[in-house]
Amino acid sequence: xxxxxxxxxxxxxxxxxxxxxxxxxxxxxxxxxxxxxxxxxxxxxxxxxxxxxxxxxxxxxxxxxxxxxxxxxxxxxxxxxxxxxxxx
Length: 88
Prior knowledge:
Radius of gyration: 16 Å
Largest sheet: none
Shape: elongated
Number of helices: 4
Oligomer: single chain
Helix content: over 70%
Strand content: under 5%
Structural class: mainly alpha
């Protein structure tokens, strides 16, 4: 049972992971069990989905107006996101 219940930190990592790739069955079960008890992580998931959709829309508009995003701008965004993830 202990392996089924994750901390909020692990759950937010799974929430972020599911935005880019499929979770394993175990990860899905762990995340769902945690979210059943944690309103904060449910809110985090909703906010993450909104931000992901907004960023995807912004990038698609930016790319269609200017062609492909410059590699340096793309790398700056990736670096900023990684810095945010490491400060959690």
